[in-house]
Hints:
Chain B: One of its GO terms (biological process) is DNA replication initiation. The complex is a heterodimer. Chain A is mostly helical. Chain A has 6 helices and 5 strands; from the N terminus they run H-E-E-E-E-H-E-H-H-H-H. Chain B is an alpha/beta fold. The radius of gyration of chain B is 27 Å and the shape is globular.
Amino acid sequence: MDPSEVEFLAEKEIVKIIPNFSLDKIYLIGGDLGPFNPGLQVDVPVWLALNLKQRQKCRIVPPEWMDVDKLEEMRDLERREDAFTPVPSPYYMELTKLLLNYASDNIPKADEIRTLVKDIWDTRIAKLRLSADSFISQMEAHAKLDNLTLMEINTIRSFLLDSLNCMYKLRSNLQPGSSKGQLTDY
Amino acid sequence: MFITDIRKEFYEVVANQRVALLVASDIDALCACKILQALFHCDQVQYTLVPVTGWQDLSTAFLEHKEQFKYFVLINCGANVDLLEMLQPDDDSVFFICDTHRPVDVVNVYNDTQIKLLIKQDDDLGVPSYDDIFRDEEEEGDDSGNESDEGSEPSGKRRRFDEGAIERRIDRQRAKREWEARRREILFEYEQYEYHGTAASMMFFELAWVLTKDTKDMLWWAVIGLTDQWVHDKITRMKYITDIATMQRHVSRHNHRNEDEENSLSIDCMRISFEYDLRLSLYQHWSLYESICNSCYTSCNFKLWTLNGQKKLQEFLADMGLPLKQVRQKFNSMDMSIKENLRDVIAESSMKYGMKDIRIQTFGVHFGFKNRFLASDMVHATTALLESTEKDESDGDNFIKALDSLSRSNLECLHAGIDQAKKKLMAIQQTVASCICTNLILSQGPFLYCYLMEGTPDVKLFSKPMALALLSKYLLKAFVHSTRNKRCKLLPLIMAAPKDVEKGTVIVVGIPPESETSDKKNFFGRAFEKAAESTSSRTLHDHFDTSIIELKTEDRSKFLDALITLLS
Lengths: 186, 568
């Protein structure tokens, strides 16, 4: 999967905006949106929020988890635990990038939030790499990882699968008594 | 006619239509175009952008697009000529003109249906009143009707009536002749001087503000448009300061929006600040020494083309305590201790050397960690890109490149523009120095005259109108500082440079005399027209500024002679 595809899926998440125009309820295939009244908060998917923001028709309200204190707590928790801790949102990385690129004037302390989210991401990816490394070297058959997001899985997917395939080929060729090209099952 | 409510009469009319934007080639027009484009993007209005460089371009563009478009927006072109006469449009085409050229042609002012002027009426326009210029044609018909009625009277009374009728007719004809003479006088006075009004970009920024869609980007573009008028000497200092005050109100309004002790803005957000900064061109992107040598104000006051001047400059730097090594380095690498008080130190020292106005009110922008620009930096960079004389680049390409460099995301374009601007300023300085030292400026009686020969270095740069106009202004300032002849200091300057060697044409620019309190009114437009007519020289009055024309090289001398006779 391409990271842009993951970002596309992330744009379906719901975020709150404050529009400055009025419009009746609109009925889209994915669901109903609206009605829009100036000054009243309304829930919309991220793709619509960004489009309206670029056309200066709304203000984006940062999600609740996008707050310096909460993110600091999460980062410290992540650093203490060995396993993966629950994430603020299944698409936290993509939402941070999108919202901070297009709506950084609506989000207080945007630079610190960017640094904190990057710290959380780095810690989790480090844990993921350790775990993948031990999985391959100890030739385990299966592993269970909780609380991973799609973006993190996506970063490791191709590497992990390719390396496991290579390991499998190497192992099957090392089997005593097997001729070249014959595969044995474990 | 003048538009009073810009939102209802302009924006809401075009918002659901397809519009053609015809934009002139100067920085103010580019900035206005950017602001309008941003507004159109917000409301998804379909538009076509056509850059135009002169009247011929404008007519061609109009002919190409008149089938498809009903609404035309003209930016910085079209107000000072009878547009309907020139373009011959259909009755349903509507033109919205936002132009800084004055005087506005009277037909444009008094046409109610097809021409809408996006110009503020409190710019002192001095438009003559309707009755002074236009007279109803019906009165003529009444006269002849009366005469034919009277003719059918019985013959006995005819002689007496005829005498009365003849007297009345003579009176009417006399009144008509007097009215026409007065009309010619009024029109001549109204149209003889050419000058500039409020920037088009400020007009469109106000539109954005009325629609509450104004962003910092648009504010910055409006500031750049205003600064362009100042850098290219199109408006008086008083007007510039007044307009800066208007912009300052908008800047403070934007800055108070979300700057708070606790919720500070991200570093990537654009911050515009008011600066009382030095008049040294591009000094933050160059070394301080180079900037002082190549800025018009300092170079003319020190007379840097003389040895004496160079010595004075060294004294000046020593007086401020700035070591030469520091001053020749790139500005960003100078010591922090020197940079901190630089402006005050320079302002103080320059008072001793007779430069009282080395500081000027302007604005600066700051986004990201590295990017700081002053408005005048942007103007120089964008002008250099717009008039770049690289091979294989058409006017349209240059226009698009210059337009792109105004966006925040195209910083490499902007930096390339800054480099080209540095080369242009150095070329101007060297040309000024050589002209003064070799006495190329000749006094022709009512004006000064200078001709750049074909072999002059960088003469290709000066085949473009704005570059040549800038050169002439610097040259005139330098001349005024270097000459001892009191009478010559009050003369205007005409400058000519080769434009196209193959076709054998030169470009001629006329600028008003240099003075502290000049009102920047230029009479050369009409003078050039009359001189060309009287000598039947082959001229092309294509540029929107009537004081810039193209002339065949062979006709140069007779054209000049005609001008001398005309103006003395």
